[in-house]
Amino acid sequence: MNNISIRTAVTKDVQRILHIYNQGIEDRIATLEVDLKDITYMQSWYLQHQERYTVIVAECGDEVIGWASLNPYSQRCAYDGVADLSIYIDRLYRGKGIGSKLLTRLETIAKEHDFYKIVLFTFPFNQNGQGLYRKHGYRDVGVFENQGILDGEFVNVKIMEKLL
Question: pLDDT at position 1, please?
């Protein structure tokens, strides 16, 4: 898909970000969250993601079809140079290279904001996500066993990282 643009998210994007995030919750492949979020939740989340902890969107025409964010890894100052990341793509656009475009831009932004490392947490069964991250040089760190509960079952969570 060549007609995709990547830009910093603005307030008017929050509704689409919410919609795409809720798809991720419903699909049970990207988050331990189980309850769908509402616009109040997402607006608050968005306001917390300014400056260093930015949100970017992938846009096709006038429609936001994916988003990514840098998130705080820890509140401890020793980890100021480490960011966690999130990437969510609209169901209709998954597997079309959107995540790769978002990740490339997000890494550039991370460097510009003095992050030296990005970490992420993914489900071991999310092979598509892991393929994206490995393609961009992320390495497996390990697995948290029984890290959370999803639909009444324990779920393991894989940790991956990249030094920038």
Answer: 64
Q: How many Cβ atoms sit within 10 Å of the Cβ of residue 107? A: 20
The tens digit of pLDDT for each residue in 109-156 reads 999 999 999 999 999 999 999 999 999 999 999 999 999 999 999 999
How sure is the predictor about 157, in pLDDT bands with cuts at 50, 70 and 90? very high
Token pair listed for 50: 């300014």
Integer Cα distance of 79 and 65 in angstroms? 31
Rounded distance between C-alpha atoms, residue 118 and residue 154, angstroms: 26
Residue 79 in 3-state DSSP? Answer: helix
CATH number attached to the domain at 4-119: 3.40.630.30
Question: How far, rounded to the nearest angstrom, does the alpha carbon of residue 70 sit from its chain's CA centroid?
Answer: 7
3-state SS, 81-128, equals CEEEEEEEECHHHCCCCHHHHHHHHHHHHHHHCCCCEEEEEECCCCHH
Q: Which residue has the tokens 């030296």?
A: 116
Q: Domain spans of the chain?
A: 4-119
Q: Which two tokens stand for residue 162?
A: 């990249």
